[in-house]
Design goal:
The complex is a heterodimer of chains A (252) and B (480).
Chain A (H helix, E strand, L loop, with lengths): L2 H18 L9 E2 L4 H4 L7 E2 L3 E6 L3 H4 L1 H13 L3 E6 L6 H6 L7 E5 L3 H14 L2 E8 L4 H14 L2 E6 L18 E8 L13 E9 L5 E6 L8 E2 L10 H8 L1
Parallel strand pairs in A: 3-7, 3-8, 4-5, 4-6, 6-7
Antiparallel strand pairs in A: 1-2, 8-9, 9-10, 10-11
Helix pairs in contact in A: 6-7
Chain B lengths: L6 E7 L2 E7 L1 H5 L8 H7 L4 E4 L2 H18 L3 E5 L3 E5 L10 H14 L6 E3 L3 H10 L4 E3 L5 H5 L11 H9 L5 H6 L2 H8 L2 H10 L15 E11 L2 H22 L1 E12 L4 E12 L2 H9 L11 E13 L18 H9 L3 E7 L9 E4 L19 E13 L6 E6 L2 E15 L12 E9 L4 E7 L12 E6 L2
Parallel strand pairs in B: 1-3, 6-7
Antiparallel strand pairs in B: 1-2, 4-5, 8-11, 9-10, 9-11, 12-13, 14-15, 14-19, 15-16, 16-17, 17-18, 18-19
Helix pairs in contact in B: 11-12
The chains are: A alpha/beta (252), B alpha+beta (480).
Amino acid sequence: MSHAPASRLVEELRDRIAHLEGSVSRKALVLPFGVPDVDERLPGGGLAYGALHEIAGGGAGTIDGAAAALFAAGIAARAKGKVLWCLTRPDLFAPALSQAGLHPDRVIYCEADKEEDVLASMEEGLSFGGLAAVVGELVRLPMTASRRLQLAAEKTGTLGLVVRRWRRQTEASDYGQPTASTTRWRISTLPSEPLPVAGVGRARWLAELMRIKAGQCAEFELGACDAEGRVCLLPLSSNGSDTSTWRGSRVG
Amino acid sequence: MSVDQPLVVISRSGSKRWISAADTAARKLGLKVGMAASKAQAMIGNLHMVDADPVADAAAVERLALWALRQYSPVVAVDGTDGIVMDTEGADHLQGGEELLISGVVNGLRGKGLTARAAVADTWGAAHALARLTTNETTVVPRGDVTKAVIGLPIHCLRLAADTIQALRILGIDTVGELSALPRAPLTLRFGPEVGRRLDQLFGRLAEPIDPLRTPDLVEVARNFQEPIGAPDTIAKYVRRLVAQLTAKLEERGLGVRRSDLIIHRVDNTCQCLRAGLAKPVRDPARLTKLLCDRIEKIDPGFGIERMVLVAVMAEPLEIKQVANALVEEAVVDVTPLVDILGNRGQRLYRITPVASDVPERSLRRIGPTAVETGAEWAARWPRPSRLLAYPEEIETMAVLPDQPPVVVTWRGKRRRIVRADGPERIFGEWWLRPREMQAVRDYFVVEDEHGDRLWVFRAGDGVDAGTGSHKWFLHGIFG
């Protein structure tokens, strides 16, 4: 009986526990939002690479997924490299992605006829490695499928983003079902930032962090992606907004 | 020679000269294939006659078959003197299905100035008959419907000798249905086994493998099995070995594969194919193996596979390049392996590139996923919606003309009160491309309702002049 194998076993178990707990050791492998209030709620200080993140819209956004897609585009834009965008309904308008910082040269679209094909393409993209992010627009995300995607993402460290959009608003209750994804977000539109003149200001979102591994749920009022895919904190208090917190991040 | 001058091709058999082909103008004037040349000359004065050149014709058909081999299907052969036959199984999904495949073939040939008719059916015989006897440019017979499709066709579509057809006609048999209803024994006794064989081939009771066309410059490796194989693992193992042989052969010639076919001969004398296309020439065995093994479940080994052939149908020069190794810069990841894998599964892969147009739906174009990166971006600095509807949907609005945004918008039965709005952004019709849009105008507005939903709406017309548009309102996109 030697101690070496036993201690190795303990080490291995520790690693596995750390892995299950959302891991402190992988601190470097996150993509921060650059908004301290959001980042401090996420373990490691940002969205984990090599993990699956679910994003859905709220209200009318459950069907069109417009804000959710833009939120995903902003995240993908800040990661480095090409992006694979898998979809079945080709109604995404590329100039909007470009305005969220995702250059058209960086996005490869993969249009499929069936949802299963989207899942298969996403898995292939995630296990390919070398992509910045793989985005998939899905109606259903069963547990098994999400676990496969999560494992494929873990293996290569690619960011997996699932934009959930349903056919009817009532079907969105499906979003309560458990999946293997690391975080789950709901992005709903809020009235835009008021301007001193007539017009529409910067779009605002209510970003609800509904579920997170090794973290607590939270919600933020965010200003939508700027030209480089960055969001900012943009709460609209009744007694005039405190602009000092977000002006900086908008310029920088 | 003008287009409307009738043209016929004259063939000789012995001293007899007869028309073997006639163009549309000639057929309109009443000339028919098989008519004596002297009679045609007597009927029409300015008839243009060309002597037939069967050797050149055969060569031209073979060239067409080679083109089809590269473009469409791994198994292509020349069919008779006037056609080509292909096995579309395992290759049609790359073109988006059988219908798209054959309309693509017909359109491709039309682009080369040729008129073609094509048919897809379960059997070679049926496709042969339907392509020659229907007036439609393309015919697709659903799986299992061959009998219904061919039963009324005349017997000369059966690829039988001319004297057999003549003798059957004398007996009063005109259609395939009548012939197949006759008792087989007396038929065979009188005309030999050929009639029964052709009938069985037509209905798919007898296999008729297509012997694929090959040229000497095709790189091909094959493997025969003493015992038929069938298990997916075994197939994968031999695919790997064949790929290794093929890449070794290609390396000798300095080539890389663009399109490769795996042809599987089964013990019951039928064959199946898998085609794998690549975005760039490749000689990497691992990548090729992965592409071919990815779809191994599509192979139905039946009673076993006795022979596997791997062909590089399309090969292009591939030179070894030295990769500059920079310590500072990050390596650019080549995505072509991923593109190949997804593309061969039938997924539509593309990138979107800007087009210089102010009209939103025309401001982008799909390009190949591995096309050259231009770095071009959209010039417009106005916000654009993240979802654009395929067609603008008409909405009910209340708005002050000419320049005010709507106050109330009703879309899909939901009434929204507009709180904020931006606009108009005036977009003019592209009169330099489309004369109908000489005066057309669209005024786009970004509107936001009390819940914060932002919509992109436009009014067709400038709000003053009815010539610029209908002044109806439409919703075109949804902002995130």
